[in-house]
Amino acid sequence: MKKLMNIKSAYKTAGISVGVITLALLVFSFNDDLFQISKNLEVFAGLYKEVNLNYVDDINSAKMIKNGADAMLDNLDPYTEFIPESEIENYKLQYVSTQYGGIGAGIYVREGKILVSDVFAGFPAQKKRYTSW
């Protein structure tokens, strides 16, 4: 019986040890990621500062940051893009708006005729129904 208790204790100790080691590895890899991010931001900020202070001509710093962000995102997918704060309202109106802008009907074409398949509540198509044209 005592041998069985020692085996359970050994398994418990081994399990805890594996858990602690796994946790330590995750923390160290996370810290390495944070270090890399911090270092890269430091390089970017240093480059921006040097160009801003020492470039022979005046620069448009907002345009330079926008170009840098766009260049950084170019290697990702075609849908990831940087929207500057000054353009965010226009972007929301064009692409993020969830308002429906039609008459409120689903339509399809059958045998050359346009047919209404659905009429949505609260839209102009619901106000007046025509059974035939």
Describe the structure.
It is a single chain. This protein has 3 domains: 1-57; 60-99, no CATH class; 103-133, no CATH class. It is built from 4 helices and 2 strands, in the order αααββα. 59% of the residues lie in helices and 10% in strands. It has a two-stranded antiparallel sheet with strand order 1-2. The N and C termini lie far apart (91 Å). The protein is mainly alpha-helical. It has helices spanning 2-54, 61-73, 88-96, 124-127; strands at residues 105-110, 113-119. The relative contact order is 0.05.
Radius of gyration: 31 Å
Give the SSE order as H and E letters: HHHEEH
Task: Assess the beta-strand content as a share of residues.
Answer: 5-15%
Low-pLDDT segments: none
Count, helices = 4
> On the 0-100 scale, what is the average pLDDT?
76
What class would the helix/strand composition place it in? Answer: mainly alpha
Distance between the termini: 91 Å
Strand order of the largest sheet: 1-2
User: How many separate domains?
Assistant: 3
Tell how many strands the DSSP assignment holds: 2
Overall outline? flat
